């Protein structure tokens, strides 16, 4: 008989790996990509493809240069790439897309020690970075190719319409994504499908996106005193995309369930403040970034209490 | 409304749940370790060449926290040898060559028990230890100190580990022994409430226990969700009574005694027939085993004899475990003997054992969110690697029961339980050193004072 193996217990484990979690997220993002392609045309695929290739490629080269183990097969770079792509308009110049992806992987993630060590959300940081650097080409929305509202102003998003005045798309169009915006952020239906998949697969807690959306909704309801404005608030911009795919990032948010809830509430608060009082029409990525800084403190405040461990 | 602690869903794999235990014939020889319990090893009282029978005392308890050991076969003592225990430590053992007759000792008699002291002495003499796996001498557990009140006796029939069904068989086949044991204990220790905690995946055992509960108004059955580790002592006490056992305290400190169902059955059997603990029902299972079944095994039988009895292996065993896959120990040799507290012998194939490779922690929080005791294994690992013992103390690594939930769920395959065990050892050494230093200081201070 061959030699028996010895190790510490437990001797069995769940099937879940980092790779399988990331694969689940990629699967959940697919409806958004498909919706983006339908709404904004096939160039969406080019933008997302470019950001994925740039993300994975820069991770590979970064590992090579820093003599680290090659980590591209954990698929986290693919997730970052897809999310960055979906956060950009379909008309984004490819070289700008590549700059954003390399920035996210190398500066935000790699330099801080790689997956799990970064304190800021790579996709959110990249979006903010691109928004500031290339506001001319990347900030606005793109008129949907497929639209029941042909009079929609090119380049305007519902958020800028709400700020500057103009005609808003119908709530149904908002839900289906027939409005100006980034590739993956407009179709709420597709985002909800992805949300359901991630919750069923237990990759994310359902209450985190819920608290985030609810916070913005309630604040808008109080401040604007209008149900439909509040509804437009939560359906527009990158709020839904951020709620499901960005504020649920593991590495840059608190680990406990309670901590994640506090994080989501904080993000909602900042998002609304930026939208209502800031000079930028959109606040999702800024909110995530600002809350990332507070993550260690939220973690400390919401740390679990050891069972029966009260000081005696 | 009752609250449940966190836990995980493990595969049940209770393949042998409906199989009545089969009695194994006497092996050619048994090797009975002197340390099958927590506490001091028993002292051998036989010498080479002595004739022994089933139930003959071969080693007596060495001190209070210890347990006597009886021969499990009839035959001749061949020698006092060294044996490797499942935990990897060496221990003295008595090797007995069996004559194959299994003749019971003529001196076996039913003990007369009419008060608490006699009950505790009878439990001690029965050689019963915690059969859930811990092996804590039962007479110590049931010897409730004066002034301590026991409001609940909790019978642990959760059996939350995958594969194992030996407790299930006890509850189904030996409910009369259990009932007798429970009633005598309750009568003499003045306990008025008995809760039998069972996971809801054991329909046959639940039915048997409910029937048993009908005959005594003190007994109730509590059907619990099948969430691992339901059978953990602190978890079970909290779920059945709502009481929180403070860190470093025992169930007795909150008025509870927790005892495994097979333990009370063994006590009941001894009180009824006077036969001490010499056999153990063991679940033999795992992907490499030809015919999984429950076997009644003489204590001291080697694993190779046991696996041979069930038809040997059908595949290459990758790991052989004593106990379940979540908390059991992997052994390096099939010479390892079955002990009093062995409840399963598993031969797992490579495909059944974990095969993930360690990657970077992604801070998913699965370990801490699933920990039934609210601990943070991720933080333990960080503190351990930085050698930060004060932090380990603050994080309460000492509470960890090594149930294995954190390692099981970790997507990065971090060796969390292993680190917890090492951290606990490190913390213990640090605290011992601190105590010794403080004592020395005290002594010095006292001398200085004396010398003026």
What features would you highlight for this structure?
heterodimer; A: 312 residues; mainly alpha; Ammonium transporter fold; B: 452 residues; alpha/beta; 6-stranded mixed beta sheet; 4-stranded antiparallel beta sheet; 13 helices
Give an account of the 3D structure.
The complex is a heterodimer of chains A (312) and B (452). Helix content of chain A is 61%, strand content 0%. Chain A contains 14 helices and no strands. In chain A, helix 10 runs parallel beside helix 13 (257-277). In chain B, strand 7 and strand 8 form a beta hairpin. In chain B, the strands form 4 sheets. Chain B has a 6-stranded mixed sheet with strand order 1-14-13-17-15-16, with helices on both faces. Chain B has a 4-stranded antiparallel sheet with strand order 2-8-7-4, with no helix packed on it. In chain B, strands 11-10-9-12 form a 4-stranded parallel sheet, sandwiched between helices. With 452 residues, chain B is of the alpha/beta class. Chain B is globular. In chain B, helix 3 (166-173) packs parallel to helix 5 (203-214), helix 4 crosses helix 7 (261-273) and helix 10 packs across helix 13. Chain B folds into 3 domains: 22-273, 3-Layer(aba) Sandwich (Rossmann fold); 279-348, Ubiquitin-like (UB roll); 366-448. Chains A and B meet through helix 1 of A and strand 15, strand 16, helix 12 and helix 13 of B.
Outline of the structure:
The complex is a heterodimer of chains A (312) and B (452). Chain A is 61% helix and 0% strand.
How is this fold's topology laid out?
The complex is a heterodimer of chains A (312) and B (452).
Chain A: H1 18-40, H2 43-65, H3 76-86, H4 94-109, H5 122-133, H6 135-138, H7 158-164, H8 171-176, H9 188-200, H10 207-224, H11 227-235, H12 239-246, H13 257-277, H14 284-301
Helix pairs in contact in A: 1-2, 1-3, 1-9, 2-3, 2-4, 3-4, 3-5, 4-5, 5-14, 9-12, 10-11, 10-12, 10-13, 13-14
Chain B: E1 22-23, E2 29-33, E3 43-44, E4 51-52, E5 57-60, E6 69-70, E7 75-84, E8 90-98, H1 116-125, H2 138-142, E9 152-157, H3 166-173, H4 175-189, E10 194-199, H5 203-214, E11 219-224, H6 233-241, E12 256-260, H7 261-273, E13 279-285, E14 293-298, H8 303-309, E15 319-322, E16 329-331, E17 344-348, H9 366-370, H10 377-385, H11 389-394, H12 405-409, H13 416-451
Parallel strand pairs in B: 1-14, 9-10, 9-12, 10-11, 13-17
Antiparallel strand pairs in B: 2-8, 3-5, 4-7, 5-6, 7-8, 13-14, 15-16, 15-17
Helix pairs in contact in B: 3-5, 4-7, 10-13
